[in-house]
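Section 3.1: Structural characterization of target chains.
Under the original work plan, the team committed to producing a structural model for every single-chain target entering the pipeline before any wet-lab resources were allocated. The record below documents one such target. The sequence was received from the expression subgroup and is listed exactly as submitted; it comprises 249 residues.
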Amino acid sequence: MRVALFVPCYVDQLYPRVGMATLELLERLGCEVEFPEAQTCCGQPMLNSGCDTDAVPLAERFLEIFTGYDAIVAPSGSCVSMVKNHYEHLVHEDPRYEEIRTKIHELCEFLVDVLKIESLPGNFPYVVGLHSSCHGLRELRLASDSERNTPSFNKPRQLLEMIDGVQIATLKRQDECCGFGGTFAVSEEAVSCTMGKDRIADHLQAGTQVLTAGDMSCLMHLAGLIRRDKQPIHVMHIAEILAGYEVPQ
């Protein structure tokens, strides 16, 4: 399978280890991975700020760069949801959009639904707290949420449970927002921080040693609060755990 690796801006600039972990994991599972070097921002920051017109050229550029692959995979639920769910009113008349919309996948979704993997090697002897980001949970349906009376499922958890040694922390509010919300963390700093500290408190009571998620943006927010308050929790993107990376010290 010829897979295009889509790496979000903040991952590329601040957390390149996450991009490398995603690449190594996909190649280990038999994918022929290409990284289109011409890729740019997907336009989510502009759209979230109400600047729809400014997001259109980026959406058009995305279609141009990523058309023609068997699949497009990104270690970010929010960026994938931007393309899959929010490009429609930007580039809905472009005939390439429907192909892109059906071929782009968040990493965990791709591993579970497309590759259908049933086992992963490695050992990770830690209590892992899984944060469900809002975009992945409610827009991509990577897991069931508490407000719906539907059968329970969780694709990221399904993958983590394949790794020896992993214990999943039991949270009191497993699908609550971390408070990041992109520009929300800037415009409503106090509310954002309070929400983030509430999530960290839940992980502390659950005994979380390593906090993980499919969105590095949420983890960036939570890691900042953890670091400032000197809490005993490490933060890792789920791609790093699945790829067998060690816990950063």
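The domain at 127-242 is CATH 3.40.50 (Rossmann fold).
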